[in-house]
Design a protein that fits this description.
The chain is α+β, with helices and mostly antiparallel strands. The chain contains 36 helices and 29 strands. The strands form 6 sheets. Strands 1, 2, 3, 4, 5, 6, 7, 8 and 9 form a 9-stranded mixed β-sheet that branches. Helix 6 crosses helix 9, helix 16 crosses helix 19 and helix 26 packs across helix 28. It is globular.
Length: about 1100
């Protein structure tokens, strides 16, 4: 059947990928749809030219659909930008390179609310807490912002539950609507106060009316009430836009704006002086309105500041001030139009914009576990001559660090606490199991940024459950985080030493083994009865060198650096635990990974060589690797696979075997899973090379720099000072140049070593829990560059072999091509069923026939054969008493396994990583995935569309194509599969699906696709199904199934009935009474 080409207003979940001409002209590529190719930035003219020509070919109904959808997006996006930003754009001051976008004067108000922390804590314990809190926030902020707008206030920033408001000083007497009768302040017969005094008068009147209407606001939740205390200042202000770094999840640069100036310093003093329900004016503001208002209680401790009681109603009243304010308010004429949609995007978080675009903004409101960093900065005066430039450098540096660790920069503002940054880890789509560790690592790098800029920074890091969502009203809102965790972060920040970091107990518990947390004396913080334990983190120093140790043992880099970025290093003896995992996995005889490695090594797996007290003797007899092996004639072995599939275990076995049997001495260079670790790779390569020199000659000094001076070739001796700084952790300048210098020296050292002993160079790159390619692209480029140089060296030097470990292959790299040619490429997959059983037997320490068949089936379906997931699942089953194991005897189950809610195992890499993967999806893809979990068997695209963009609800083919694109993305991610109607797997159907998509989009009104060409999908991944289903309410599951059934019935029965109706209508009908009359006449 053909779907209607015109989308109705009720078609919500879809938006176009390109904009059509609308009010204000043609927009650029719309958010989250078509981005630039990697590394390419197109000019606006390059984008618009083909789009305009395409738009000219669109029909009126299509144009109307595009404009209608984009108009809804525009209306939602306008609430996220203040008026002053829009006015700056039309004044030509909002170019991407401009920092100061507005210079003006006026009144500035800081309004802080009390009661939100208690409200958030109470609602966080309820299942629908996020929904209730969102309703409370809307009910409170809607009248508040309406009052602010009525007095021409402009809400610049939300600081959690506080607002920074700007009342611009404008000369209304120059307004075209000014009639000379009603003065700007609204009181007939009184002289004009001037722009500045009028702006402060409006701010004062607004504050008084806010207290009258919203003081002790009843939230309806356990008698929690909200009230405000307000500070007012005035003077010259600047509005700055800073940043411009591209976040990892999008291609759009992210800009932040802030207000600065003397009024901010005034309100920082005035606001704390006001109690709940009070407003305090700075001396400058009071001087302008002292004859217009009545003063409240005196402030003995600060006599220059004055409390505001009420208006002097003999001169000025609320109605007259508001009337005159609105009479001369023409801000709506300078609002963003459809053509500026891409300008708005720069100031809205990309995930929030995508929700606006899909019409699902209310779904961003939720309670979730996050890690929060509050950063306080001092020493920067943004009003000085160089202040804006320094602010831009500071902001862009903070953005780079934040985005490198896949965090979200939620706020940058100046308020009563000074210059503040709020950085959050764990907000969709940037959700990771190791977010607490990412927050602590980012804090260390933030401290380096402040130190480099000669500024003072303090950092507080906390982890906990908080409200994450929009705060405000339909007219003005921001995406923010609220809760006790966020407040505690601010308290720890204020207690930290300059450039110091303080963490709470939750962060210390859930961080990885990369840190040592030193317990500090517990502190008393505002709002807490009990003392709060705090911790000072320190980066763990690796005391044992990577590579050959002085005891002639091999110390592997993965003993010290977690390769998945998630597992908490609770094991005291990491080498012993790693060797046990190696023996258990590599003893699986049918595993394809170990069988191929055995062929290259020329012998069966021997677990005896993996004893912890094994030493490598320089005079031991040397065995020969089999002919044609990379370890005999030189070559590169590449092992690729996702985290947990056994790369580390295979690599450790290869290195140990080559060291003990072939006397090939290892040299290591690893990167990841943390960003920007090229220096670590260079240091490891240098130090492990020097360890081999010491192994061969006792005359090589123990100090790395001295050893480098002794062994480096004379032609490269000039590089020793730079490398010495690198080895001592004091390298500065261009990191890329230092890395290139280090690699040049390493290649020279390898060339020297191969003359004395065979060498095995091990290069490893791990992405850990990072989700987006943009995060690791630069590091991957560096890694594969080094890998290519290794392949070139191996090709020329026969006594050097290479071992490369990676998550994903760069098939264009020389090393990968060489491995493919020599059949030394291992692309690891999950274990097969027989291998899963053997591995379970090894891990549990029981015979294979003692493993219950239902356990074997459950493990195979849930873990997808991933050894790491198998270990985690078995450990969880034992910890939760679902299984009892008697070593060497049996494993027994205590109940049915299908009733276990594995979705609660968020702390495991298996579940936590899957949750993070699903959270990283775009809204339309996430909706398609969640709906897919509702179907046990095969389903079709119309089944999904029945609940999101049904043709019976007025949706169009554009909506269906958006959903189709989402299903294709899920297929590429191996989340859903293409199947036959009976559920059997389909092979090589990409061409058929592409041709069908083309058939559906061409001539859609006249040529519907045939029924038998409908593709069927199925979610056969039990792990994703289980985790995805846990995100869907039971009522939603029933609704999806019901809508799909109704849609199927309608499509089955309705066409035949419509044909019968059409045939009936084609026959001329004569009413019976006319028929009788005709007969009488005849």
């Amino acid at each position: 059947q053909a779907w209607p080409a015109i989308g109705a207003a009720h078609a919500q979940p879809c938006r176009p990928s390109r904009a059509a001409p609308g009010a204000g002209g043609m927009a650029e590529v719309l958010p989250g749809q078509v981005g630039e190719p990697d590394g390419v930035r197109l000019d606006l003219s390059d984008r618009l030219a083909p789009m305009e020509s395409s738009a000219e070919r669109l029909g009126d109904n299509v144009r109307r659909w595009f404009n209608e959808q984009n108009g809804q997006t525009l209306q939602g996006a306008l609430a996220f930008v203040p008026f002053v930003l829009q006015q700056a754009y039309y004044a030509g001051e909002l170019s991407e390179k401009a920092i100061v976008i507005h210079r003006g004067s006026g009144g500035v108000v800081f309004s802080d609310a009390s009661g939100f922390t208690a409200l958030t804590e109470k609602l966080a314990k309820k299942n629908n807490g996020a929904e209730l809190l969102s309703e409370c926030l809307t009910a409170f902020f809607t009248p508040l912002i309406d009052l602010i707008n009525a007095y021409r206030g402009d809400t610049i920033k939300f600081s959690g539950d506080a607002l920074t408001i700007y009342f611009p000083a404008t000369d209304d007497t120059k307004c075209p609507a000014f009639n000379g009768i009603v003065p700007p302040h609204g009181s007939y017969g009184l002289p004009d106060l001037g722009p500045m005094a009028t702006s402060v008068l409006r701010a004062s009147a607004c504050c008084i009316e806010i207290h009258k209407r919203l003081h002790m606001f009843d939230t309806g939740v356990d008698d929690v009430r909200l009230c405000l205390h307000i500070g007012v200042g005035c003077g010259e202000i600047n509005i700055l836009q800073v940043g411009g770094v591209v976040p990892p999840e999008t291609h759009v640069p992210r800009m932040e704006y802030l207000i600065s100036g003397a009024p901010l310093e005034q309100i920082a003093i005035a606001e704390p002086l006001a109690k709940n329900g009070e407003t305090c004016l700075s001396p400058q503001a009071w001087e302008l309105v002292k004859d217009c208002v009545v003063e409240g209680r005196p402030l003995e401790e600060s006599p220059d500041f004055h409390m505001l009681l009420r208006m002097d109603e003999s001169k000025y009243t609320f109605p007259t001030i508001k009337y005159a304010t609105q009479l001369y308010d023409f801000r709506n004429e300078s609002m963003f139009k459809l053509s500026e949609l891409n300008v708005i995007r720069r100031y809205i978080p990309s995930p929030v914009f995508k929700q606006i675009e899909c019409g699902t903004l209310p779904y961003v409101n939720e309670m979730r576990n996050i890690s929060t960093i509050f950063v306080s900065g001092s020493g920067l005066d943004v009003m000085s001559e160089n202040g804006p430039r320094t602010a831009q450098e500071l902001m862009s540096s903070i953005q780079r660090v934040c985005y490198a660790h896949e965090g979200t920069l939620n706020k940058f503002l100046i308020d009563d606490k000074g210059m503040l940054f709020l950085v959050v880890f764990g907000l969709p789509p940037l959700v990771h199991p190791d977010d607490p560790s990412r927050a602590v690592l980012a804090s260390f790098e933030f401290a380096q940024v402040f130190k480099r800029l000669a500024l003072v920074g303090r950092f507080g890091v906390t982890t906990g459950r908080s409200y994450c969502g929009v705060c405000g009203s339909a007219k003005r809102m921001e995406y923010t985080v609220l809760g006790d965790c966020v407040n505690l972060s601010a308290r720890l920040m204020s207690k930290a030493n300059p450039l110091g970091i303080l963490c709470d107990e939750e962060t210390s518990k859930h961080s990885t083994g990369e840190f040592i947390f030193h317990a500090m004396p517990a502190i008393k913080v505002k709002g807490k009865t009990n003392l709060i334990p705090i911790f000072a983190p320190m980066l763990k120093q690796n005391l044992v060198p990577i590579g050959l140790t002085l005891e002639r043992k091999v110390h592997f880099p993965w003993y010290d650096n977690p390769t998945d970025g998630a597992a908490v290093c609770a094991v005291e003896d990491a080498p012993l635990a790693a060797k046990n995992r190696l023996i258990q996995l590599c003893s699986v005889g049918k595993w394809s990974g170990i069988t191929k490695v055995q062929d290259m090594l020329g012998g069966p797996f021997n677990k005896a060589i993996h004893s912890t007290d094994l030493t490598i003797s320089s005079g031991a007899p040397r065995s020969k690797a089999p002919g044609g092996s990379p370890f005999a004639d030189g070559g590169v072995v590449v092992i690729s696979g996702k985290t947990g599939l056994g790369k580390i275990e295979l690599a450790e076995h290869i290195i140990t075997h080559c060291s003990t049997q072939f006397q090939m001495l290892p040299i290591f260079g690893t990167m990841g899973p943390r960003p920007g670790e090229s220096s670590r790779m260079a240091i490891e390569l240098l130090r492990s090379s020097l360890c081999v020199f010491r192994h061969l000659s006792a005359s090589v000094p123990g100090d790395d720099v001295q050893a480098l001076v002794q062994v480096v070739p004379p032609e490269l001796a000039g590089n020793v000072p730079v490398l010495g700084e690198l080895l001592n952790g004091r390298a500065g300048g261009n990191n890329a140049e230092v890395f290139e210098t280090a690699i040049k020296v390493v290649i020279a050292l390898l060339t020297m070593l191969k003359k004395q002993t065979p060498v095995l160079v091990v290069l490893q790159f791990e992405v850990g829990t990072s989700l987006f390619p943009n995060t690791t692209r630069e590091d991957q480029t560096t890694f594969w560059s080094m890998t290519a140089q290794l392949a070139k060296l191996v090709r020329n030097e026969k006594h050097v072999a290479g071992l490369v470990l990676c998550n994903e292959l760069d098939e264009s790299n020389m090393a990968v091509k060489s491995a493919v040619e020599s059949d030394s490429l291992l692309n690891l997959r999950g274990l097969e069923d027989d291998s899963i059983l053997e591995y379970m037997s090894n891990y549990l320490g029981v015979p294979e026939n003692a493993v219950p068949p239902e356990l074997r089936k459950f493990i195979g379906e849930v873990t997808l054969g991933n050894p790491l997931y198998i270990r985690e699942t078995l450990d969880q089953l034992r910890q939760e008493s679902h299984m009892k194991v008697k070593k060497g005897a049996s494993a027994t189950l205590s109940g049915p396994l299908d009733q276990i809610n594995i979705a609660q195992w968020n702390h495991t890499q298996m579940i936590g990583g899957t949750v993070c993967l699903l959270e990283s999806l775009d809204p339309i893809e996430a909706a398609a995935l969640k709906m897919s979990t509702c179907f046990e068997g095969p389903f079709t695209l119309p089944d999904l569309a029945a609940s999101s963009c049904s043709q019976w609800g007025g949706a169009s083919y554009f909506d269906l194509l958006r959903l189709y694109g989402a299903t294709r993305k899920l297929m590429k991610m191996n989340i859903i599969e293409l199947v036959h109607a009976d559920g059997s797997h389909v092979e090589a159907n990409e061409n058929r699906m592409a041709s069908q998509a083309s058939a559906e989009t061409s001539n859609v009104e006249d040529h519907p696709a045939p029924v038998d060409s409908t593709p069927y999908f199925q979610m056969q991944n039990l792990l994703v199904r289980t985790v995805g289903a846990s995100m869907v309410l039971e009522a939603q599951k029933k609704s999806v199934k019901r809508n799909a059934l109704i849609d199927r019935v309608l499509k089955q029965d309705l066409p035949e009935r419509m044909l019968a109706l059409s045939a009936k209508k084609s026959v001329q009908h004569i009413p019976w009474y006319y028929e009788r009359a005709l007969r009488r006449m005849l």
